[in-house]
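Input chain follows. Return structure tokens only.
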Amino acid sequence: MNVDIEEKTLKDECIVLDIETTGFSARNDAILRIDAVKVKDGEIIDSFSEYIHQEKELLESIAELTGITEECVKYGKPEHQVVANLISFMRDGLLIVFYTDFDMAFLKVAYKQCGLHLDTDFIDLYKVCKYIHPSKSINKSFLIEKYEIDDSTDNDCMIYAKVYNKVCKELKQRNITTFEELNRAIFL
């Protein structure tokens, strides 16, 4: 799946993605849950959330951090099935990911373990937020407060989808309406 990012506008369908894991190393740890939210023209139009079956005992610190219990992953689906379902859900959508280095590393490993190659364009929501708020420390807490997001969910993906929608409004005020314009603004 390869998206022509130069033709996409901020109003077009995108997929906000978030991954919860057993740790911080894509090489040594595993994915617990994959969440994705389809966003189009400022609206959340569909969502995806699936647990991946894990045999290993979860560390208490990871359970506290993610809100995911052993019970959740005990009855999860095999990784290859969750990846196949995710591919079907994403179709040709552009990915929006907060801290792409982390989530995309895990996703690439999962694809590879399923005999697939991850070939999709993505935008790092962290970098977009840093562009808009260069003097601020960008983290989930700051974004929740800044954009007055209800954080009563344990699903960060929904939070980031709402942040993305708010950020798109700010970008439009700066006359940035396409991903090509966004890339030029951030990386030039």
